[in-house]
Design a protein that fits this description.
Keywords: Coiled coil. The chain has 5 domains: about 80 residues, no CATH class; about 70 residues; about 60 residues, no CATH class; about 90 residues, no CATH class; about 100 residues, no CATH class. Helix content is about 50%, strand content about 10%. The chain is built from 24 helices and 11 strands. The protein has a 3-stranded mixed beta sheet with strand order 3-11-10. A hairpin with a 5-residue loop joins β4 and β5. α10 crosses α13, α18 crosses α21 and α23 packs across α24.
Length: about 525
């Protein structure tokens, strides 16, 4: 392991001395990041005492932990802070997240505001707004670019588009307007257009007159049809009244018929019980005789011994043979009551034990309990996202609170990286990954097709054409992956121009951005244009 002190100008000429070793030691495989951090601090402090000012430290990618965290383990980049926040949320139990959400917004904070229409809007718990969980996170896997469905789109209503002046002038009810949805975009634009209030009133009056005229015409037509129907029915009733008057008098005085069951009926019922799977479980009716079955129809207490499925078979048999009108879908108590009346059996609800017990009134659960039950049904991944979004704002504010706001040309810039401050050297220690390592690793990543949205096919087309120094072996075999010359050739202007001629614009833009970043890393006194190129890269 060698520590080199170098200036900011990278030069490959042999006759110029640009760097010098200041410390070295044999390195073993057990060297940890924290041990290297302590060694680096000692070397940096000794250089500072000797008058060597080192504003920036550069490492290999293996020691990226020194770049992203300080000596106390606190994150130095926004990306590392996001990773720590997600890791903290991911390690929490589902019950702990639900308990945390339940404790929020317990104290009521009431406030009032005056809306655009002059109405007073009452607000409660307006201090903390919980994040909404996305629809696609309800499923077990995350679906990207989900197409919105009709249920997920909030439809506009007349209450949203009709001007307030029109509502007040015509005494329109907001509750009725809120129930009338406006689905078509053309209708929304027509309602929301800036028109005169007089035109609105005329249009509403016209609609009202049309509606009244339609109602009157339809009422007249319905009344005439009803008179014709009543006239024809009166004639038919008058003709049939003389013929059926005697029959109706006889039927009104006769009692309801009573069904008498015989042994043959019992044989049929036994056959139905034995052939019905749910009735003859464990051979219940295999050893029952028709005489024994007939005794079970003698009293209401014995009828109660039938199962509901068995009573359904009895009702089905009586409907086919005796033409009785008993519904199979009725409750067991209702079927027993109708069978008792049909068989002339004394039926008493209280004695038969069919009186329904009064159930204790169920207490209505609070809104908090209902919301908790809904939250508990969500997948843990969804709760992790909700909790991470909830705590992220506070985490970011604490992280950025000690950073001085930077304003360039009147514009404020957000910080992505916060350098660590050394109290011993009284300076900010900027740490970064070595640019040569980033360039060679980027070349390896591109050759393996690891860049999102891009493949190595664009570079293979250029290599097969033979018009540049790029060869297929340099891409497929990744010859000499740590070579700087190979990496520079991979993103050279000649390769970029060939890609643009082949129509591979995205790959050509990547070559241009990486080459601009590489040039900006060695250029002194960056102007505004080059600064933008460096930031984009």
């Amino acid at each position: 392991m060698v520590f080199l002190v170098a200036d900011l100008d990278r030069s490959w000429e042999k006759d110029q001395l640009r760097c010098a070793p200041v410390s070295w030691f044999p390195r073993g495989h057990s060297l940890s990041t924290e041990n290297l951090r302590n060694i680096t601090e000692q070397v940096h402090t000794l250089c500072h005492r000797e008058g060597i000012h080192i504003p920036c430290q550069s490492f290999d990618g293996q020691w990226h932990g020194i770049v992203t965290r300080n000596k106390n383990g606190q994150p130095l980049t926004v990306f590392q802070l996001q990773k720590d926040t997600w890791k903290e949320t991911e390690q929490m139990k589902k019950a702990d997240i639900v308990s945390l959400l339940r404790t929020m917004n317990k104290v009521v904070h009431n406030s009032s505001q005056i809306g655009p229409s002059g109405r007073i809007i009452e607000l409660s718990n307006g201090n903390i707004r919980l994040p909404r969980f996305p629809v696609h996170l309800n499923s077990k896997r995350i679906v990207l670019d989900e197409v919105a469905t009709a249920e997920s789109i909030t439809q506009a209503t007349l209450a949203d588009v009709i001007p307030e002046s029109v509502k007040s002038a015509n005494n329109l009810d907001d509750r009725v307007l809120a129930l009338t949805s406006v689905e078509d975009q053309i209708e929304i634009e027509a309602f929301a257009v800036n028109v005169f209030d007089d035109e609105w009133e005329n249009e509403l009056d016209k609609c009202k007159d049309d509606l009244e005229s339609v109602d009157i015409e339809s009422h007249v037509e319905q009344e005439s049809d009803l008179n014709q129907q009543l006239t024809s029915e009166n004639k038919e009733i008058q003709c049939e009244s003389n013929d059926n008057s005697s029959e109706r008098k006889i039927s009104q005085g006769m009692p309801s018929s009573v069904v008498q069951l015989s042994i043959n009926d019992m044989n049929c019922l036994l056959a139905m019980f034995k052939t019905t799977k749910d009735c003859n479980k464990k051979g219940k009716w295999d050893n029952t005789s028709p005489e024994d079955l007939l005794l079970q129809f003698s009293s209401i207490d014995k009828l109660r011994l039938f199962l509901d499925v068995e009573l359904c078979s009895v009702v089905r048999y009586l409907k086919k043979t005796k033409e009785c009108k008993i519904k199979e879908s009725s409750t067991k108590g209702k079927k027993l009551e109708e069978l008792a009346a049909l068989l002339n059996i004394n039926f008493d609800k209280e004695m038969s034990g069919l009186v329904k017990r009064k159930k204790k009134p169920q207490q209505v659960k609070s809104l908090s309990e209902l919301a908790t039950q809904t939250i508990q049904k969500l997948p843990k991944l969804t709760l992790n996202v909700i909790h991470a979004e909830l705590i992220w704002e506070n985490r970011y504010d604490n992280w950025i609170s000690k950073i001085r706001t930077v304003t360039v040309n009147g514009m404020k810039h957000d910080w992505f990286y916060k350098p660590d401050f050394s109290e011993i050297r009284n300076q900010y220690d900027v740490r970064c990954i070595d640019a040569t390592h980033l360039l060679t690793r980027t070349r390896t990543k591109v050759c393996k097709g690891g860049i999102e949205g891009l493949t190595n096919e664009s570079w293979l087309k250029v290599a097969r054409s033979g018009k540049t120094l790029l060869t297929p072996a340099m891409i497929q075999e990744i010859i000499d992956p740590m070579s700087m010359s190979m990496a520079i050739t991979h993103f050279s202007p000649e390769v970029e121009n060939m890609m643009r001629s082949n129509g591979d614009t995205d790959s050509a833009n990547l070559c241009h951005d990486i080459r601009s970043w590489w040039q900006a890393d060695d250029t002194l006194e960056l102007n505004l244009k080059k600064d933008k190129l460096c930031a984009r890269a």
